[in-house]
Design goal:
- The structure is a homodimer.
- Chain A is mainly alpha-helical.
- Chain A is elongated and about 60 Å long.
- The first copy, chain A, contains 10 helices and no strands.
- Chain A has helices at residues 10-28, 35-42, 46-52, 56-80, 85-106, 108-120, 122-145, 154-164, 171-179, 185-205.
- The longest helix of chain A is centred in the N-terminal third of the chain and has 25 residues, at 56-80.
Chain lengths: 208, 208
């Protein structure tokens, strides 16, 4: 029987680089962190970091993908839980708002990174939006199957709900609501509750 | 009987300065146009222009206010016209989308100016939003009075309809929908029709 010490997989190394980079971006800020800083913290050469990520921007892409994945997982859990479709839609909206708020208020640097990624790495955002539409479609289809909502095209309904609630989860809109419109977090939560209630009423009645 | 040549009123001079500046901003671009260019075109000294506007940015503010006023007037006309509240809400949404689209596509420089004004002169945007909420409230109140919509708080309904349709009239969102999400103008018009139909269904059923 031979004993081998396996080298960490490429995936594990990528994750470790992303962990350390995320920590540095959070503490030093994205702009001020160089790939050399990340390499030093890892005890690696910068050349080795570049074997796994072509650029600092690519590291940001990976971190943003991870962050959005963690939000999507939470939303998917709500979508798959028990309860009425109406209650789940409200819970999804509020979870999304509080995730976005917390990013904006408590992790301003991560918020800036997501905003930057929306300009540079649309693919990551696109994947996230796809998962969001899928989970909304599931909840609306459940509601239609249960007779809670009028029969109709659940995927089309999901697109409408996503578009109509955009201002409560789009980073730039959220910032504008709070800064220019001077809405407080609790007012925004109330606004979203009202909006979701109107959309749910529409789904119950059916729009065709 | 004495004949006097009245000097143009301050308001008329301000309007003339704004006219010429708007023309130059459209053709040369906002950044490249200096107050000296505007003054030369008017046969005035720059000092005289500064008697009426404290800065180039203040001229932009006046032009943006005028532009938004012309949009608001069109929307108010629709709100006050005959027809069902449902039809008027759809017409308001489509008019707003097509005004915003035309600015974005055909008058890119004016679009950039409105975007700039949203950062620098929120008061002008705020006034416009106030008129928009007022006209939506009127249509929804009409619908409630006619029994077309369920009874409720028309002003609260207007806030929800405004927030839910934001992505079809906010300059930054409109640009993102077309550029990143690759929606065509006719798809966006269809998306808005579906969204408005769901909101109208919600208003008919009532959300409380």
């Amino acid at each position: 029987m031979s004993i081998t010490t396996a080298a960490p997989s490429a995936e594990a190394t990528r994750a470790r680089i992303a962990d350390v980079a995320e920590q540095l971006f959070r503490t030093m800020g994205y702009q001020k962190t160089a790939v050399a800083d990340i390499a030093r913290e890892l005890g690696m050469s910068p050349a080795n970091v570049y074997r796994f990520f072509a650029s600092k921007s690519a590291i940001n892409e990976a971190i943003t993908a991870r962050l959005l994945d963690s939000v999507a997982v939470k939303l998917e859990r709500i979508a798959e839980a028990d309860g009425s479709a109406e209650a789940r839609l409200h819970a999804i909206g509020q979870e999304l708002l509080s995730s976005s708020m917390s990013l904006f208020f408590h992790e301003k640097r991560m918020h800036d990174m997501v905003s930057a990624a929306m300009g540079e790495h649309w693919g990551v955002i696109h994947t996230y939006i796809g998962r969001f539409i899928t989970l909304l479609t599931r909840v609306i289809a459940d509601g239609m199957a249960a007779g809670e909502f009028a029969p109709g095209d659940a995927a089309a309904g999901a697109q409408v709900v996503k578009a109509c609630t955009m201002i409560w989860h789009h980073p730039a809109m959220l910032a504008e609501c709070m800064q220019n419109m001077e809405r407080t977090p609790s007012e925004m939560s109330g606004d979203l509750t009202q909006a979701m209630a109107l959309l749910v009423a529409g789904l119950k009645r059916g729009s065709r």
